[in-house]
Amino acid sequence: MKNYIIEENKLPKNEGHHETLFSLGNGFIGFRGSFYEKTSKTQGCFNNSFYEEHEIKYGEKLYGFPDVTESMINIPDPRNITFAIEGELVEFENEYLSEYNKKLNLKKGILETSYIYSKNNKKVKVKATALVSFNNKNLSFIKYDITPINFDGEVEIISFLNNESFALDAKDDPRVATITTKTFEVVNKILDKDIYGYTFKTFKTKKELTVLEEMNILSGDFITSEICEKEKFTQKIQFNGKRNDTISVLKINEIYLDKLKEEYLEEERTFDYQLKKQEEFLNDFWENSLIEIKNDEELTQGIRFNLFHLLQSVNSEGTFGIAAKGLTGEGYEGHNFWDTEIFIFPFFLFTKPEIAKNLLKYRYSTIEEGKRRAKELGYDKGVKFPWRTISGIECSGYYPAGTAQYHINADIAYAVDMYYKVTDDKEFMEEYGLEILNETARFFLEVGYFNEDDEFRIDGVTGPDEYTAIVNNNYYTNKMVKRNFLAAYNYNKEFNTDISKDEKKQFKKAYKNMYLPFNNKLKVTPQDDTFLEKERWDFENTEKENYPLLLHYHPMKIYKHQVCKQADVCLADFLVGEDVSEKIKRNNYDYYIDITTHDSSLSYNTYSVIACEINYLEEAYELYTKNVRLDIDNSHDNSNHGIHTAAMGGSWIGLVYGFGGMRINEKGLFFNPKTTDKLGEYSFIIKYKESKLKVTVNKKSVIYEMIDGKEIVFYDRAKKIKLDGKAKTKIIK
Ligand code: BGC
User: Fold this and answer.
1) For the chain, how many structural domains are there in total?
2) Is 565 close to ligand 1, i.e. is its CB under 6 Å away?
């Protein structure tokens, strides 16, 4: 059980970090894990579709720069509860608190906080249990218990419903950049018997969010209750407190968007019901996404923590993607990036494919805006998906490291291709997938060109490495676009679509003739046409505190050097590297790891996967553990802005694709499992087509076990394996 619990026993020093780690959410609503008894500057509550638009201010605005951007709003946090003992309000300060404990339970989906409060010789034990329902997305609960330890006397529980909130102070950090002006107003106050609340409405996007509250008394010698609304709703509930007698109340918050109020059965509003349902939901989740490192509880715990947070970040209805920080903070303004398709999507694809499908449906829902944007960028055909967005509009105000990352189109196409290879979902392809493949491919046909040698080139774009911008023939982009053309060509054939013959021919030709740079002298793949000619960054004389470089150097200084923020060539070697030899992959890894700062949290994971492939296993393990513990350890020093969902997805990729050596290609599903002394034995479960497969790897052997479903065919390196029924195969390495 330990590795399903994340716990602390001391009051946190870094409250922002603490609030992020202990966030609770269900993909629709997310709450930072702040204390209920006080307000904090960094507390927060988010809904994935409650956002405001605001103007981007440019000194020099050029044609086609986006006018506005979008920001997910920090909603007034409805969870504050405090108490008074004989008229004296609690002071939530270190000196009065002892036996503090906070526990995030990944199996039950609850957050428990407990402590002893002692002042003026009066001692109480406080225990709060919070739950944000995975089953009823609008409902969240806090059960709040107070037990007088050494006195009999009046205890008052006070619950607030706030109607104001503050954006995180971004200072000069481009990774936050929130709106500081007022974004919404209260348009309705509700007071209906015991239920009270507000409706907030954004000024420009006209989104409406209603937050309701109800306090149920579960136990205690109740005297009276009063609800009043002055600056905000406050409910005071008085009890005759008795020594060792627990007073218990249940705070129910109901949050819904755009008047879409759902009615819930009485039973669904009870805590016992919710606890039971939450656990059932999570049992199913963990059963389908088991990951276990036999002798390393901490690592197992770290991975599970990450997967739990991914689940909390994902909307299950296809109306929203996954924000870079999930619903845990204002970092990156609640925007969706390529992080979703390349780093997070695989986990859902192989464990909860219906969610993977919804993520793609969300992208599809923005396709018309993407077509409009393609035209604005000067192209007649195709779609250009935004680099960062909530509703589908391009929200990046800094185009060299934003709009210019055209690879996002190919990344989305890649996810469509993967989705079909793993699920065989024809209906999805017909309704959504093919259009995404065709429109992205069309866009690239327009962007690139055939030169006099008939090579297809893509000039003036930015690859994944954001420390290099606007280059010709970024290898990652070209290689991914090549895959995009191939997928478009193949699936049009397979589905016998009616796109023109000429277009099909063009897709094929661009695929076949894609220019891919290679440096023969170094036997290394250049990141782009000029990357290897640049001066190397002076790492030896760069002080530790000057990282991340983006906060300390002008882009002009960074861009003229060989220095990478994150994996670029190596990511291509991982995702579309079937035709690259192990030797070249090793050369690339050796070359690029030395000049990569990992200033992006997306980086460790890719290098770790490649390190596994080229048998640098100890190094792979080091990189992998850094990736897994990134938020727990706050190693990027910005976890206070929210979790790093891409790195969290990376902790699944790192084990399954990295050590497990899993790959999918035209021929099917492959494994090449490895382990190290430190990693030891590990297992994971995946869903593939209509089967569920468990893989257990140790130094001597690999066991493939079919857990459920129909016959499954796959490969262990070159060996073909067929499992039927509940069968097992043991391969001795
Ligand atoms: C990375 C991008 C990423 C973004 C959001 C940036 O630091 O360079 O690749 O998409 O963060 O996570």
Assistant:
1) 2
2) yes
